[in-house]
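Hey, can you fold this one?
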Amino acid sequence: MIGKVVLAYSGGLDTSVIIPWLKENYGNPEIVAVCMNVGQTPELVGIEERAKKTGADKLYIEDVREEFVNNFIFPTLKAGAKYEGYYTLGTPLARPLIAKRLIDIAKKENADAVCHGATGKGNDQVRFELTIKALAPAMKIIAPWREWEIKGREDAIKYAEERGIELRVSREDSYSKDLNLWHLSHEGLELEDPANEPPHNREGFLELSNSPKNAPDEEEHIAIGFEKGIPTALNGDKLSGVELIEKLNKIAGRHGVGTLDIVANRIIGMKARSVSEAPAATVLFRAHELLESICLDKDTAHYKSEIAGKYADIVYTGHWFTPLRSALDKFVDETQATVTGEVKLKLYKGNIIVSSLTSPYSLHSKDFATFEDDGALFDQKDSSGFLNVYGLPLKIMALHKERWE
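Sure. Predicted structure:
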């Protein structure tokens, strides 16, 4: 018997339909809708009214932006983790936090089950449910997309219309979108075919970014200050993580920075195409990489790049609450001890151009790397002996080949 269900609620098409479906198919349980503000603030206008109109008995709205930034975004930024080399993980980072709070509220409400609106084809079902299994292994999970007769967004829209549910999407503009501080993703409709060019110049499509065509004709200079791998200042002003990301989204978005066209390998095995707007994330990843280039020694930097790929896989596949991710954080934190300094950049029509890198812990020195006389540090004659030893394996192999031939 399911008497109370806690639903991860966004107010979008899927979760708006799920509420009446749960009422109809699970014996009219009490529905507690839970909405976490991870940066989708504009979408929260009127959400309480929408939830109640569709049948929710109670609604929690919590601002978790600071936790999202400090405990999820910044650890991933410090790790340099981008899935398959370029995806900045906007959606995957938010899901474990939302699921964690879902469980907290389900326990508080003595709920019989939790419910999410992720599809059976997608990644989010994995991210939600692995978090739930890690934090509340006995909790029942309801996943309507794996149970109901609704086959797609067209069916969902029809279902809503039959029940008088007001929607904020139309059939012509029913992209599946996910907005938070770190990105805005677009999926569906013509984007499902990689042969179709995204409608970047269509009014209303891009929300966080300009297309480079419409970006200002003048470049803009910015300066980002880091302390131990964490961005703490923008243009000389000390800011909280949320404030910094929000301001940088506006600045970089205005200049057309950070719009990515992605065909990614989903967890369940198929490929999927999306357009992601991530202005602040794109700039911060680039700035962090640049600062590391002068602050990390060669061996640490090269090994950390291997860790970055693994860390990104962990985030993408929903394994946030695992011992491995926790252990990797300790390694990453050790590498960030000296990643402090300032990165100055120019933004211009989608481009990020380096102006300067400075750090009190920089391992680069023009006195050492100079083409001029560096005093007693390095005698160029020493390279002869070094090359004799360094090239010895190749020389031996070549001598053997001559003998064999």
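Residues 179-358 form a domain with the Argininosuccinate synthetase, chain A, domain 2 fold (CATH 3.90.1260.10). Let me know if you want another pass with a different chain boundary.
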